[in-house]
Specification:
Radius of gyration: 12 Å
Shape: globular
Structural class: mainly alpha
Helix content: 25-40%
Oligomer: single chain
Length: about 45
């Protein structure tokens, strides 16, 4: 992933483009992260 930081305010709209063998998987993972407000279950 080539993204290090993305500074957006509440309600901002952004577009993401993925290209590669696992692009659908990557976009789904990003969608889940956004839906969870970037909270993960990392231990």
């Amino acid at each position: 992933m080539g993204l290090m930081m993305l500074a957006l305010g509440p309600g901002s709209i952004f577009y993401v483009k993925a290209d590669g063998k696992r692009e659908e998987e990557a976009l789904l993972a990003l969608e889940v992260l956004v839906a969870r407000n970037f909270e993960t279950n990392a231990t």
